[in-house]
């Protein structure tokens, strides 16, 4: 996700006078404006003043973000008049429209749009082929915020009042029905207003080829108040942005800019909008150019950029693997010099994954410089995010705030005396010991934002802002290098930045927060010029403990108590790495460097003195002795210096981080840290070895000795193998001296860091006492099962090659896509979450490029979308398809995924939750004795308990065998919890997942036994079997052609003569008549249906059926139960025949026309049939309600018809039927509610889309 926060006060670390130290200063207008877009801190202003032509000219930056608005202030042109934004791309596909449907215009220039509206094509548009590709999109799917178009309730209650005045006491039945109908209409309008759910206007899109380029136009009439605005014919056609660099604006109402790009030979139109202001703000920091406000320029106003949108609008601006990969492809295709990515996530494996592999290729082969934010999860250590803080090929940037920024941009009353790192800026090291943060840059700015925000610029802060500040500074360096003929290399640029940065803070451990320090553009430029003849090499560091081949790390990180009890020896492999394509004879063979090795503290870290390094690399050993160190944080480095060019500074570094924890010896285990003194931005770190067996901490923080309000960050972090850092955090504000208690989970036996930081801009200084108590709580176990997870295998797997250029990797390999389809059914509405354990919760640390899913019903209506972080979605009862979309360029990997198991997880209702029982004996669950309630544990004591399985009759319905019930178990409750605390394990600070696999159902012992002795002879049973077989045959026959229908009629007539008045047969024949399609003589067909229905009706003894249902049968009497089943079937066949007869009468009336149809005979036939149906079934039910709607409509009671139709659709648990909604539209049209009709037509496209959306 984006690494920023909007208009939120924040902070960071300091440096020397050049980086903004201001002890006693006052802002004037120019220094205030300069503080809004900080450049002095990194020396960018000095550099441009000395070199005006090196302001980023000749450089192109790819902005991997939420999208850049090309209409935003400062993003039109560069300082030398060139276009600022070279391309705008939606790499996620969230704005893609399927435009594969092709239509042709009629003689009047009209075409049928994909939404169903008629569109006029501008006659001046060139289209040699005459083919128009059409598609549509709901506007809200493109916008970041929802615009509300209020529902216009045009029908007023005056209609009812007027009727009441005219008929003050209506006794006439007809008048009563009229009044009731008016009341129904008013009720419907009120209900519609209350339940109004605006899905936004529909945009119709048209794509065509003008003989030179693909062009597109939009019809946006539904967005405008004026019906003459937004017409398709008035739209100025756009082609792909990179060709003509033009954009559009949807309407004056939204002021939202968009770009159009056409792909796949006109079959896909991408409407590109930004998914948040974040990307435009980032681009403005790096490159904005304001000719009349130079102080508000970005760092590199001469640089150009391409916008690569990686934040998927469908996922709330979350990045996706598809977006990341396509962005890299675009950056290489556009020959970009730099990439800025202000996005990131936590990771369980640093420097690992599919995206990292592609980044390494882009950096090492194509020489792009990749800059990214370190993250905003500080102040605890090991909180850097991926990819910026965890990847060797990426320059990870921390966030710094200067006194001028604090006073100006943040409006702090008393700014800090020196610059510092923002409190929330993520810290290193990574879990494998790498420093994590490379350099720091200003982490806040007032920069341009999209026009739809209705303001020119906005304050944001975060490492998201620090990254483009650094990226802009690097653009200045590249501009200079190109102008001066110096080869551009990510290796040499990074070395220059790190070795010329100004240290921030006085402690060696501050490097874990700030990296090598605050970057300085002018110093880095001098370094680059001096080292122009030095080979472009980076130094890959691999470290492993001596005697162990694995694991391999990039530094040394001693964190646990056991690692600090004795010296350890480590093997370091240094491997020079040249760019791909480097000359073996001219670069690799001659490479040889004499390296002098240094340790920042020889009493702790010992290393050899010298090393001769060649192209093949060299290893050496170092010894780390932490035994004499005090508890706490210690940071050291082993670094190598070129003996022949010591001015180069360290050419490689091996970070050594030691967090020596204190051991908790007292019983019960309580730890206190007293009189910790805080100033703004100050951080206190404590490291504790969590006692074995402890599962959570109860901590108390007590403050004293201050006057004004204080704000603190309280973080804890533990690192466990192959897991993301286990982090707990709290931001707490103290308005007066007081104490606050917390509880958070821990892992026993692992070191825990407790980081307490006073927020950088909070208070002037105080002394607080923080007490942290570790307590062992009462042993009172609780367990329940509250979720069910059902496994599914795909019913279909389609593997395809993505042929578009945006899916062709820089290496030339084409991306492949695997679409897996799963089918599942919900018997009741439920909130479900799809789970793919192999793939979920990993974006950067996975070898698969992308995953995306969508859940749709049988009408293709999409209810939910998601990616690696699946969200719960509420679905109504019905059948659903889930399509899972996976991408990779290796077909073998995708082939292995064709039978991938997916789980559908849903929460159990409160009444379905199973609370499990505990026992003190192993046979307790079977014998029913030895129940366990609670016990008091003393330190060191162990106690065993036995958990009983759920009782079979407590298992939830619709839990097939093999599905899993999930829940949690906890072993205690908070000491400060109330009486109810601990009963629900999920409410305790620590709980552990438990699962129960639903076993197979018991074998039905009675299965296969005859229920009763048959009284029928063998010949009678044989005759019945033959009859039933013939009925199965006639049911299976197709009737697609005239010949097939003729054969079916012959067989029907034969069977009717052979088995006269046999109701099941006649019902089957009626079903066959109803299944016929493409019938030319429709009136004759409906007459045949009526005849078939009459045959069914006449074959049934209605008196016998009525008599049976007037009596109660004995459920214990098997023969009576069998008779009941037979009678229920007969009644249903009668009702179905009456229902189909009524529908056929209605259809004939409609086909013959009103004149001929409106006869008393026809009315009587329909009415008599309906009244007969009412005797047997509830005509308001969803199964038969259509006939009731038709009846009310025939009687002119349109309000009653609509009410009945709505109730019928609500009662029906199946997916909505299109015919019912079409009937609703016709009723609304007949009433004249145009506004209501328009609303329902929009929903028709949502409920019944022609196809699924594109991935």
TrEMBL record:
GO cellular component term, pick one: cytosol
Catalytic residues in the record: 65 (charge relay system), 278 (charge relay system), 464 (charge relay system)
Keywords: Aminopeptidase, Coiled coil, Hydrolase, Protease, Serine protease
Annotated spans, Disordered: 1-20, 1001-1024
Domain Tripeptidyl-peptidase II first Ig-like: 552-658
One Pfam family from the record: TPPII
Catalytic activity reported: Release of an N-terminal tripeptide from a polypeptide
Domain Tripeptidyl-peptidase II galactose-binding: 678-762
Protein name per UniProt: tripeptidyl-peptidase II
Location of the Peptidase S8/S53 domain: 56-504
Organism this protein belongs to: Salix viminalis (Common osier)
Coiled-coil residue windows: 172-199
Biological process (GO), any one: proteolysis
Signal peptide: none
Tripeptidyl peptidase II second Ig-like domain segment(s): 777-959
Enzyme Commission (EC) number: 3.4.14.10
Entry GO MF terms: aminopeptidase activity; serine-type endopeptidase activity; tripeptidyl-peptidase activity
Annotated family: Belongs to the peptidase S8 family.
Transmembrane segments: none
